[in-house]
Amino acid sequence: MPDNALEAVGLHRAFGNVRAVDDVSFALPEGGSLGIVGGSGSGKTTTARIVVGLERADDGEVRVRGRARPSRARGTAQRLARAREVQMVFQDPYLSLDPRTTVEQVLRETLRLHFPGTRTDHDRRIHELLDQVGLGTRAADARPKQLSGGQRQRVAIARALAVEPAVLVLDEAVAALDVSVQAQILNLLADIREETGIAFLFITHDLGVVRCVTDDVIVMHRGRVVEAGPTTEVLAAPQHPYTRLLLESVPRPGWDPEAIAAARRAL
């Protein structure tokens, strides 16, 4: 099996005269965890959408386990196979879950589409998934509005895990949660990564999240990668002015927001 679960090679994406993604390349090892950080408009979310297939690159290539990922799937079988390679967990799980559908129905429909089998097989797998994300079978009959934000995000994670993807993309997946729930979800993701070997791609502006859960990080600014390397090294000794600005922007005693704003304008 190839060493990398995911590779992006020379990705480009423009919207009119704006280069949202400009020659972005990176590699995510099997079972690894890579963070893409940057401010609003840096291109990190567009990059994630290209990886998942929600956006088409103007140029470049995405590879999953050494095989080029087609920009467009033809037919139901190819679309399902493509979906099983890479799954995405969004910032707001309430918007990605059908409010009329119970947790059990969400997971059962996912399993029915991707792994046709008996009801007994699916029952067992649903129980496994609920236990894996720390919900238990009591949540199976609940609808999204009956769950907390953290519980809904656990359902979204369970649905993504149901197809056994090679890569799980998490786009600001804990940004909408309070700090204590963020910690629970991040600990859950760390456990899942250790148990399953799924590679994680974190898209975030939160350097605290990056520090906790990633092995490597790339920093994006105006569509380009300006710095990359092991997370501990990049955050401890940033080489690019924009990376230093991101670190200096974190509120702390003596923090000067006006100076940060001036530095941001200068860049």
How is the topology of this model organized?
Blueprint: E1 4-15, E2 18-29, E3 33-37, H1 44-52, E4 59-64, E5 67-68, H2 75-85, E6 86-89, H3 93-96, H4 103-114, H5 119-132, H6 149-162, E7 167-171, H7 179-196, E8 199-204, H8 207-213, E9 216-221, E10 224-230, H9 231-236, H10 241-248, H11 257-266
Parallel strand pairs: 3-8, 3-9, 6-7, 7-8
Antiparallel strand pairs: 1-2, 1-4, 4-5, 9-10
Write a brief caption for the model.
By secondary structure, the chain is α/β, with parallel strands linked by helices. 42% of the residues lie in helices and 24% in strands.
Task: Tell me about this structure.
This protein has helices at residues 44-52, 75-85, 93-96, 103-114, 119-132, 149-162, 179-196, 207-213, 231-236, 241-248, 257-266, and strands spanning 4-15, 18-29, 33-37, 59-64, 67-68, 86-89, 167-171, 199-204, 216-221, 224-230. The mean pLDDT is 89. The protein has two domains: 4-236, P-loop containing nucleotide triphosphate hydrolases (Rossmann fold, 3-Layer(aba) Sandwich), CATH 3.40.50; 240-267, no CATH class. The strands form two sheets. A six-stranded mixed sheet has the order 6-7-8-3-9-10, sandwiched between helices. A four-stranded antiparallel sheet has the order 2-1-4-5, with helices on one face. α4 (103-114) crosses α5 (119-132) and α4 runs parallel beside α6 (149-162). It starts with a strand and ends with a helix. The protein is built from eleven helices and ten strands. The chain is an alpha/beta fold.
